[in-house]
Sequence to fold (677 residues):
Amino acid sequence: MAEPRVMDIKDQPGFRTIAVICLLVLYVPVLILMIFSLNSGSLVTHWEGVTLGWYGSAFLNEEFHAAARNTLIISVTATIVSTICATLAAIGMTRVKPWRGLAAAFMVINLPLMVPEIITAVATLSFFALIAGTLGLNFGIGNLILAHTVFCIPFAYMPIRARLEDMDLTLEYAAADLYATPWNAFRRITLPLLVPGIMSGAALAFIVSFDDFTITQLVAGPGQTTLPLYIWNQIRRPMTPEINAISTILLMVSILFVSVSFLIARRRAK
Amino acid sequence: MGIAFENQVAAPQLPSRPAYGDNQTGTHLPERAGSLNGVIVPEQPGKNAIEVRGVRKVFGTGENQVAALDTVSVSIRENEFFTLLGPSGCGKTTLLRLIAGFDFPTAGEILLHGQDIAPLPPFKRPVNTVFQSYALFPHMTVAQNIGFGLEMLGKPKAEIEARVAQMLKLVKMEALKARRTSEISGGQQQRVALARALAPQPKVLLLDEPLSALDYKLRKEMQIELKRLQHETGITFIFVTHDQEEALTMSDRIAVMSAGKILQVGTPRDIYDRPAERFVADFIGETNFLPGTVVSKQAGVATVIFANNATISAGYPEGFDPTGEVTLVVRPEHADLVPDPAKGTITGTLSNIVYFGTDTHYHVKLDGGGENFIVRHQNSRSSPVTYATGAKVGIQFEEDAARVLKD
Fold:
């Protein structure tokens, strides 16, 4: 009789209970938030009936529109720029002869993941204040785009690097053997096979930028309110379920984005 | 411009070869040395396809230096099925990678039809590789994989399509041309890898243990298939393997390698019947080693005396002068048992009899001591004598059975 080598986790005592508690703690608040976005009353704690009215008023809300526009401009630009930087960095660190400072470069790229976000936020604020004070430069919304791009890079970098390291190097040798110049080998072999990694990297970067609060709060100037900032401002006033509706829309955008990139990645990986 | 490449493949030795690789357009412009989309076209098709001259390859730096290849020189002829044979770590794959251009030699030259290609990157060498792992491009179809090399050479689309169709036919994969490479079996992937490497009609095809991932039956089939492809295309094949049987059955010539050196180059028969060194004799086939002392020599044949005062004539490698105590090598099938010990050149006691179906191995514990001597006997319906373990026997040698080893 062969012993099963891996224990079935479902047989562990208390596994079910702990799992159920975790799932409840994680998802019940979100679920309640979504349910109350349909509340016909004007309180977020007292249920009265079903309506889609709060979604209607959210869609007509000019401030929400402005915040959504800012968020999209910042997130999309930061995602594109940071994904390009991350892709180049990952290639430069996996597809070249090992160079002095490679380990240091790896550390530097990933440092933002370890530095507490509030520190990064204060540092970024001081940095922009400094260049505004000494050089008289202010990039407007560019400040936020720049800040987001920087902290998105390590998130985009991770899955791209992982994909590059998993890739069979022999494929690139085979391309070179079949007369592909380094550029052609990259364009025809490495890049197409890297697409799933780039997609996940971009999706991560987008999500991180899309819901960033701490850094945005400190760096944002007047008229640069993003969706998380807008929601934050709203809950300091008497709250209506419109906030629930807006939050639900945000959540849906995130879920949609992650699902699409996941599906694309899975299809490409086949 | 795509013509020079193909014309020169048609080798001078075999003018009657089938029309494989003939240019479809029918224009045969005399093309001089130059380049095709950056890939060099060698000037003078000489006798040797590849000449490796004094190539050294050192990995690592300082104290961690390891010489993967220790000043290797070898010439590989045109249209030859040449095998690099040796155990893992002997440097055979390193040599192949140097010829392909994936690595560059620390010292020495690699000539392709007389032109030094050692400093060239792989994409400028008219040499293609079949990888051990096949390395098919997973995001492309079978046909796209096969056409990739031609596409990179900048060949016109019509020519690529025609050649791909031709290659699909050559490896009998027409029906699966639109499949992804992940949707075909290992044996089929092997064929696609071959077709892909042959499609650009390289001067030399490099094969890095291409059959090692296949099961026994498929491997036997592919061995025959490879020989056929080599004959039909007339391309020089350089084949790397650690499987001595594969090397013996497929090769025109074999280079036996060990510890970064080439020990012996020769036909399979040379290597098997006339091994020069103990390693070669030991690595290829089963072998008996016997100690003896040279008493005289004449015209490449030495007379060697054993401890029991029996003598035997044995050839020795060219350029080697055997004196004093030497080691003789005798293949198990080149010796015979005799029931009467007095009639044997050497004598011993039968210690073990192993039945193999086609033949029987008799292990003899020699009276002089040392390793057991193995005699192989082909089984037949009318074996005249049967032996039992413990019996005293004599061992006779066929003429020319013994060879003096260099070390």
In short: The CA atoms of residues 200 and 261 of chain A lie 6 Å apart.
